């Protein structure tokens, strides 16, 4: 299928400004950027009065938690987990997780996301939702120590069954949940299994002060230093949160080329704090953005996350250039693609055709003095006109092409009546 995306203001390859350019797409990749002359398209999609840019990458989320939206709020992390989330999760069936994941996929498609990074359970079942949706995803089965190491075996089985499926849209990673839920032995075995397969390793790290302090008590080391001692840090490592990290931690993360997944909204809502992102960026760390699960956000809207990343650190540091707009946009897209090793890093030939068109139709997007600033500081998920993932249109002007949104919403509400009480 050859598609020409025509008439948009398109983000340049450097990600610094929007210029008038058509984009030709073939076999899931960007074939050329320019006027498109000579490209014999099977379909031309008109994107007049739109901006075209790499789709967002939601670098840390838990898809089925959409079910818990609004059902557990205004509590500290550990109380939130122990009194609300874990009891609700106990009631969840694999089928429930599948429907909740469909809802998450619909929400991400609507908000311009093409690729995401998930950690949860029932992955082997709800991954069907990702296949149906047309999205790209890195997924892992959360590994905790509990009754032995059988979770690692489950993760291996998941990898063997799904890694590389859907024409490479599905990647399976290894997800030891966190320092406080995994023994040393579990972490070491997970590391070895991930290394053997050259797979991503996704772990929660220094999210709350309590967790960070307990780790120091247990190991006389911060979580980052503990992971370093166990040989867990590499360019394939995805560290979610890193709110409490020290300067030494940041230096270690940078030296190993590990990636930080920043979730500003979730960290604020759970009262966990503010990650020292400007310091990480200065140290050269690849920082990507995620929404976290919908129970702690309470949506999967990357526009909100991006705007928060761009403004939060300015206010906190009393520095209006702490995270500039173009940096925030890269954190929401290219940096995530780099961390997950999937998706579109720039609008350039042979990059993945994971693209989002943003409408300039509404008052809040005008005038267009600087389109990039409008995207970061003015736009919202309601402005998404098109979501293309892997060269396929998943959403265009109000219409979902792969999912039955009314059915999904109805079923999710029915399940919530049973589970979220
Ligand atoms: Zn998380």
Description:
With about 425 residues, the chain is α/β, with parallel strands linked by helices. It folds into 2 domains: about 1-55 and about 345-400, Roll (Urease, subunit C, domain 1), CATH 2.30.40; about 55-340, TIM Barrel. Helices cover about 40% and strands about 20% of the residues. It has helices at about 75-90, 95-110, 125-135, 150-160, 165-170, 185-195, 210-220, 225-230, 245-255, 265-270, 275-280, 300-315, 325-330, 335-340, 370-375, 405-420; strands spanning about 1-5, 10, 20, 20-25, 30-35, 45, 50-55, 55-60, 115-120, 135-145, 170, 175, 200-205, 235-240, 260, 285-290, 355-360, 385-390, 390-395, 400. The strands form 4 sheets. A 7-stranded mixed beta sheet has the order 3-2-7-17-18-19-20, with helices on one face. Strands 8, 9, 10, 11 and 12 form a 5-stranded parallel beta sheet that branches. Helix 3 links the parallel strand 9 (about 115-120) and strand 10. The chain starts with a strand and ends with a helix. Bound molecules: zinc ion (ZN). Zinc ion binds near residues 60, 62, 204 and 240.
CATH homologous superfamily descriptor of the largest domain: Metal-dependent hydrolases
Instruction: Report the β-strand fraction as a percent range.
Output: 15-25%
- Kindly identify the CATH topology of the largest domain: TIM Barrel
Report the sheet with the most strands, covering strand number, pairing sense and barrel closure: 7 strands, mixed
State the secondary-structure class.
Answer: alpha/beta
Major β-sheet strand ordering: 3-2-7-17-18-19-20
Count of discrete domains: 2
- Overall mean pLDDT stands at 97
CATH architecture of the largest domain: Alpha-Beta Barrel
Shape designation: globular
Distance between the termini: 47 Å
Classify the helix fraction into a percent range: 25-40%
For this structure, what is the CATH class of the largest domain? Alpha Beta
- Count of helix runs: 16
Low-confidence stretches: none
Distinct ligand kinds: zinc ion
